[in-house]
Amino acid sequence: MTEERTDTHWIQIGGLLPELGEVSGFVRRDHCGAVNLFEGVTRNHDSGRGVESLYYDSYDEMALAECRKIIGDAARRFGLGAAAILHTTGEVPVGRTSMIVAVSSPHRKESCEAVLHIIAAIKRDVPVWKKEFFSDATTAWKEERGRK
Amino acid sequence: MQPVSTNESGSLQNPETEIISLKLRWFSVLAEKRGRREEFHKAEKGITVEKLMDELEKEFDAFTLYRPHIRTGVNNAYAGPDMVLSDGDEIAFITPVSGG
After folding, report:
1. Confidence check: pLDDT of A25 > 60
2. Which CATH superfamily is domain B17-94 in?
3. Strand B19-25 and strand B90-94: pairing?
4. Which end of chain A is more exposed for a tag (fewer CB within 10 A), N or C?
């Protein structure tokens, strides 16, 4: 597990995810009227196929560095009080959380926009990969789909 | 005419050709295909990211398949194909990511 916690950000790659209340408490600031939390959860289907679980691989050191950049950019763009990105690795069964993104900002609009902005950046740049375990006992890395 | 010398195995060697050692990191589908998550690779000093990828294509079929989609990380930051690599650099080959 790789983790970095400062006064204004909390990044964790791998390991067990904390309770949502702990993450919410971390980003809460007196000058911020909005706290916004997002959970990424394993769903039981993808592209019409049943899914049993996901497995996440990561390049921990670079994932942490990219998350630091993403939070820094979002903090400047949206005036955030604090932000957190926490992503687990390994097996994540259906219904379990793989990722938590949390931010605080003075007003609600910026907090909502910041969460969407951060998630889009994670999905574009953070070196984390998922492997799907389907109900028919087959498996595939996400980037492998359509290449077999 | 270039001066030549012999190395420990007795073969001719150009003394102006310096060899550097690079640490390669593999993840996700490429780690599975490669059968390992890291290895060391010897290369000539001055090699670029693109030239390194050319070398790997010659001995790793899956790399060729994914190459158009691979981004490269050097020492934990994305790097372009023209970046010149240095001894001890860590290079990661990053297929399309899918976190979240």
Report:
1. yes
2. Beta-grasp domain (3.10.20.30)
3. parallel
4. C
